[in-house]
Amino acid sequence: MERIIPLLPDTFSERDLWVRAFSETYRAELRPERNSKSAELVDGDLLRYTAITEAFLGAHDAGGKYQNSYTSQQRARAQWAWRLRRIQGKILNALRLVKAAFTFSGGLDYAVWKIQRHSGVKIELTEAERKRPLLTGVKLFFRTLKQGGLR
Q1: What is this structure's pTM?
Q2: Mean pLDDT of the chain
């Protein structure tokens, strides 16, 4: 919460907090998720997220909002920290994908299936592409990025 609240407006709700938290963490990965996925998760169990928030922050005010008491300097530092997390997270995820391509057979097929399942972007692999997983993985990364399969 200390990493997300500085990114929120002066007043925010439990829903605002958790939608932003999921959005930021998804952006720090190579997630093939729709932009609406964060809100869907929170809205699917809002009472749970409300209870967690109240356990950490106490009860909200009479208007159903919390006050953001972070300074502008703290907010700026938090924005920079999330930018760095996004860069680091994407690099680490890309390296994990390269490792997976060599760790088990069918790694590329699995990655393509996951991308399609989460984003709807359909990619057909040729046998020649399956024989060169590293090169194909790099090509697929850029193709998927261009088609909106990674955010």
Answers
A1: 0.70
A2: 85
